[in-house]
Specification:
Distance between the termini: 83 Å
Organism: Microbispora catharanthi
Protein name: DUF4439 domain-containing protein
CATH architecture of one domain: Up-down Bundle
Mean pLDDT: 79
InterPro entries: DUF4439 (IPR029447), Ferritin-like (IPR012347), Ferritin-like_SF (IPR009078)
Strand content: under 5%
Shape: globular
Low-confidence stretches: 1-16, 166-195
């Protein structure tokens, strides 16, 4: 059996389709494959979650294939198999793989979110959000932020910025200073110098 790298492939040359769209499709092909493996190593609630992930990635894959075709391109076909980053021996490995798959597909969609086409940006943003939500559902923990040695490390989030107000401070001003819902709060008139 031939193995294909799980790394996303480029869109076919000559097609008026951005590379990011082709890489997102390749990521979805790999995700559909991986979720087949994940489903085979799980049962019960984990299998139901794997089935939902498989269905979601299959639907996104089909959507991307249609978009590429509508834009005059030829969508890449999936590989017959994909090299997994580690051997999936049981449910714990399946969960680990699911989290990794969702993180990698999120990365592909983040690249697509930089496209000039607003419709593609919307699709990419929603797909990235869905992937991040699924990853968190598989493993509900957040890793450390860049520059921090551990998740949830104490740090001061109230960094004073000259001339900036937090949204909560702006809306909690004197009675009547905030506008109707959907309108920005009006600033209070400042007193002339010396008063």
């Amino acid at each position: 059996m031939t193995e294909t790298s799980a790394e996303p492939a480029r869109a076919p040359t000559g097609a008026p389709v951005g590379d990011a769209l082709g890489r997102a499709l390749s990521a979805e092909h790999a995700a559909v494959y991986a979720y087949g493996v994940i489903g085979g190593k799980t049962s019960g609630a984990l299998l139901r979650r794997a089935t939902a992930g498989f269905d979601a990635h299959r639907a996104r894959r089909d959507q991307l294939r249609t978009l590429i075709t509508q834009r005059g391109g030829t969508p890449a076909e999936p590989g017959p198999t994909y090299r997994l980053p580690f051997e999936v021996r049981g449910p714990a490995d399946a969960v680990r793989l699911a989290v990794l798959v969702e993180q990698r597909v999120t990365t592909a969609y983040l690249e697509l979110a930089a496209d000039r086409d607003p419709a593609l940006r919307r699709i990419a943003a929603l797909a990235a959000q869905e992937c991040a939500t699924r990853a968190y559902g598989w493993q509900p923990k957040i890793g450390p932020f860049p520059g921090m040695d551990r998740a949830g490390a104490d740090f001061d989030v109230a960094i004073p910025t000259p001339g900036a107000e937090s949204p909560s401070a702006a809306s909690s001003g004197p009675a009547g200073s905030a506008g109707a819902p959907g309108q920005e709060a009006q600033p209070e008139p400042s007193a002339p110098d010396g008063q």
